[in-house]
Amino acid sequence: MAFKSLFALATLATSMTLTNAALTRRVACPDGKNTATNEACCALFPIVEDMQQNLFDGGECGEEVHESLRLVFHDAISIGAAGGGGADGSIITFVDTETNYHANLGTDDIANKQAGLIAKHNITAGDFIQLAGAVGTSNCPGAPRLDFFLGRPTATAAAPDGLVPEPFDSVDKILARFAEAGGFSPAEVVALLASHSIAAADHVDPTIPGTPFDSTPGTFDTQFFVETQLKGTLFPGTANNQGEVQSPLAGEIRLQSDADLARDSRTACEWQSFVNNQSKMQNAFKAAMLKLSLLGNDQSTMVDCSEVIPVPATFTKAATFPAGLSINDVDQACTETPFPTLSTDPGPVTSVAPVPGS
Length: 358
Hints:
Elements: H1 2-23, E1 27-28, E2 35-36, H2 44-54, H3 63-76, H4 90-93, H5 95-98, H6 108-118, H7 125-138, E3 149-150, H8 171-182, H9 186-192, E4 200-201, E5 211-212, H10 223-227, E6 233-234, E7 246-247, H11 256-261, H12 268-273, H13 278-293, E8 303-304, E9 320-321, E10 343-344
Parallel strand pairs: 9-10
Antiparallel strand pairs: 1-2, 3-8, 4-5, 6-7
Helix pairs in contact: 3-7, 9-13
């Protein structure tokens, strides 16, 4: 009797394996090189190749990646409480309108670059913006492999103005906007700001374009969450009359909103929890980015084409204190847990180089 039960279980397991294999059977794409679980995804492979070569300079984690991620955010978060906007590509479809909104100043360059590639392919602006964000992020070592769902319709109207959080907004205002836009929790807001680990500021102070938010803008790592908690000084030459833009290191800029979120009681412990926790940062960012990318869309009507996104290179280096700094330089706001133990980089204090191509 026992033998018969074991045989039955083995037969069931074999049947389930064969069923799953049938469900995940891949189809050959017309390009003769790729396969996909859904034929609709085949059309994306040449688009990915085109954007890697002609938008991301052969697959670099550079300025166009930073700007493409900014475009993802500015397009998606512009969703009104009564509907309209969201991740629909309106920032490109209505480029002359939306890129003139104060919060979107400076996005016209990347929007127009992407529009040129969109014109070559059968893809909507909303899908292209999200695809470019995911593909570009994959060029940065340490990044998670982001999800991508295909099927956003063409935007029919420009998103309303005033919906994109700005660097000098209060924490109250930022958290309220994210909650209104898509029910984002404070922890999810912190997770989305992991994008600043591979970002730079071009327009906060136009006199210092390409100024990074951390000392390692070419890698998706937790260094950003360390350096925003360091005691900063006023950034020399800032164009902000209130002197609110601070930087802990020469050549680096700190957004006031980042500084405030790192120290607010609602977000400080989550912020600190990413320090030297690469896997947590990756997983939280991936989940929050998927949620952002679907704002204003019905996921059940879309096709999961995440398989077209390249697999990012791994990154295992531990976070550190910059040369000359230590735990004594941390402006710790989380009182629940101690700040992680970090080593200090050797050598003299150096200036962080601007991001090339800015």
